[in-house]
Design goal:
The protein is of the alpha+beta class. The protein has two domains: 43 residues, no CATH class; 42 residues, Pemi-like Protein 1, Chain: D (Ribbon). Helix content is 27%, strand content 38%. The protein is built from three helices and eight strands. The strands form three sheets. It has a four-stranded antiparallel beta sheet. A two-stranded antiparallel sheet has the order 5-6. The longest helix has 14 residues.
Length: 116
């Protein structure tokens, strides 16, 4: 049985051909369409209609929402190491996984955590 990620890739590959709902022409799959301040994949039509990849668009919208919020996180301790537990929304928006490295930058009034 195929895993969900493989099935999603097959689905996206098969659905790179889409009909425009305005003019009923075939839309072209395009990578790097501007969406807010990000570039994501989607479909463009000659009539000007654009459909964004829903998974990528959802991540961008989640990132924009999280940028406007103050996010509370918990600190814990494992042996002598202090750990920071991040909420699920941050994990999803930044594609973070257990064991992944992040960069921590000390700033005047706190810290900044950046995916490596």
């Amino acid at each position: 049985m195929l895993d969900p990620d493989t099935l999603w890739e097959i689905y996206k590959e098969e659905n790179k051909k889409m009909k425009c709902h305005k003019c009923n022409k075939s839309m072209t799959y395009v990578k790097g369409i501007q969406f807010n301040e990000y570039k994501i994949d989607g479909w463009k039509c000659t009539c000007g209609e654009i459909h964004y990849d829903p998974e990528q668009a959802q991540k961008v919208l989640l990132l924009n929402k999280l940028k406007k919020e103050v996010i509370r996180a918990k600190l814990g301790k494992i042996r002598s190491n202090l750990i920071l537990r991040l909420p699920k929304d941050i994990e999803t928006a930044l594609d973070l996984e257990k064991g992944e490295d992040v960069l921590i930058k000390i700033e005047d009034k706190g810290i900044k955590i950046i995916p490596a």
